[in-house]
Structure formats: C-alpha cells, structure tokens
Amino acid sequence: MRIGKLPGYESAPVLVTPERTGEATLDGLLAWAAENRATLDAELQSVGAILFRGFEIDGPEDLAKASAAFGGQLRNYVGGDSPRSQVAEKIYNSTDFPAHLPIGLHNELSYGGWWPSRIFFHCVSEPTAGGETPIGDSREIYRRMPETLRDRFERQGVCYVQNLRGGDGAGKSWQQTFETEDHSVVEAYCHKHGMEFHWTDYGLRTSIKRQGVLQHPKAGTKAWFNQAEHFHAAADPARFWDAGSAKDETLPAHCTYGDGSEITKDELEAVIEVRDACEVAFPWQKGDLTMLDNLSCAHGRRPFEGPRKILVSMS
After folding, report:
1. Which of 183, 235, 262, 309 is deepest in the core (most CB within 10 A)?
2. Within 13 A of 164's CA, how many CA atoms are on the CB side?
C-alpha cells in the first residue's frame, strides 16, 4: 500500500491506496492494516482523517466489516439529533437532511450521552455536483477560537435542551431518537448518561450538560468539541427566537452555557467563522472509505445534486 497525501491537499486527509491490483480488495486492505495498525493509528492521531481509495468496498456489509476491523465495536445512533435512516444493523445513511442545505463542521454526538471515538464514511455513489463531506481539525479550531470565548466554553461547557415530539411536529420524535417505543428504555438511557428529562403533552423534554472543549484521552491535546452553533435556536433563521420562547416546549432544540446563561448570536457567529475557516473538502469517489478520529476531527456536508449515497458507521 501507498501512504501519502491526497493530491492538492497539504494537511488532511492521509491517503492510502493499493500499489498492485491484487491488493485492491477489502480483504487485502484489512490484512495489510492488521500488520500496520500502529502506523495507521499514529497517522490518524496526528492528522485526524484517513482516506482509503481504490479498494473494492461496496455497500453496508463491507462498511461494517471494515469499520469493525479499524475501530472495534460498532454502536447504534441512539440519542442522535440528525435525521438518519438505518440501512443495516448499526449502519446508517450519513444524513437524511435536505440536499440543498449545508451541514457545518461538528464532532459526532458531542452533545450526547456518549460519542464514538471513530466514525467511518463510505461512498456508495457520488453525487453529480457538490456533496463533499468537509473535515476540519478540531484542535486547530480550538487554537484559532478567540481566547475569551474559548475560555468561557472550556470553563462552563454547554447545556443542550431538546423537545422531542411524540406525534406530529418539527424535528425527530423521541421514538426515532432513542430507536424504541418503550418509555422505560428511554428513561434508563437518560439515567445512565446523566440526562434530565420529563414527559410532556408534546413528547419528551431532555437537557444535558456537556463539555465545550475536550482533551484527547491518548494525545492529551485539546479540541473544540461542542455543537452550540447547531443546537442554538438562533442558528436557524426559520425558528429565530427571543428570550421568552426558549422555554417553549415545542422548540426542537436550544442550548445555553452550562450555567444557564445565554450564548449570544455574536458569539455563535464568531464560532462559525472560525469553524468554516478550518474546512477541508475533497470530492467523493465511489468506493471511498474515510476514517475519522471523532475526538480531534470534525465533519460536515456540502449541498449536492444527483444520487448521492454516503453510509456511516460509528465505533
């Protein structure tokens, strides 16, 4: 195998390609990876993203096999906020978010009761135009963030609030979010992960306090690790709020600092400016597999046209 840089991209991702045709199979890649695990782990920890290109990887079964080999135990998406349909056991469409809307950089489930250490994207079919999955070094986002703002997020963290519908309404239902119809299963999840909750006439209201900055458990480096600009009600012009409506139990999502004080729109815009400046985006090719260190590398999605199909797994 060849390990190098994607042409035209200086920083990330690391590119792994087969040198010979016989090595282009998924089994060939996994056999090589098993012998070179330390090298791959070091590259991933350093750069945050590895792109495997030119291998015969096709569909959910191949993704499950590859991601289990590279990342260990696969996990489901219980507790996740993004609209996402399951196509096989613990394998999902990357998102069912409308094609014309962008999704900014974020670390998967940084707001949740748990988060994956590694996340995998596999291109089954590339779009006609657009549709890249941009990545960004969360450590660089942390370094570039205005110091006062960075320190406040690091000191106070973020409190996320969700109102999950039980019937009709905006956003995901609690049944979709927790992948169950059983109240007791939801309540057990909330208790386990320190999530406050109560059932309402609308559905389920939850709140959870999480970090704004994460220290990598292996590397020791600090990374921007929150989704305040995604959860905050003011981030979506379609549901722009005033201070009084933040308690509205039909508002799909909102967040504050960990002490309950409001995050201002100016602060959100500063976060978005830094985040977007750290984006790196490359076009998908059929068969691509991208492995991300979710603790140090964020990802998003560009708008697209055509039959884009990107699958995702988490471990």
Report:
1. 235
2. 24
Using CA atoms, how far apart are residues 139 and 297, in angstroms rounded to an integer? Answer: 8
pLDDT, tens digit only, all 315 positions of the chain: 999 999 989 888 999 999 987 779 999 999 999 999 999 999 999 999 999 999 999 999 999 999 999 999 999 999 998 889 999 999 999 999 899 989 999 999 999 989 999 999 999 999 999 999 999 999 999 999 999 999 999 999 999 999 999 988 777 899 999 999 999 999 999 999 999 999 999 999 999 999 999 999 988 999 999 999 999 987 765 444 444 445 667 788 899 999 999 999 899 999 999 999 999 999 999 999 999 999 999 999 999 999 999 999 999
**Which residue carries 């509205």 as its tokens?**
248
Tell me which amino acid residue 293 is: D
Residue with tokens 């590339």: 126
Cβ 301 vs Cβ 131: under 8 Å: yes
Closest to 72 measured CA to CA, from 108, 18, 27, 116: 116
Contacts of residue 284, Cβ cutoff 8 Å, sequence gap at least 6: 123, 126, 127, 131, 132, 133, 308, 310
Six-digit token string for 54: 């030119």
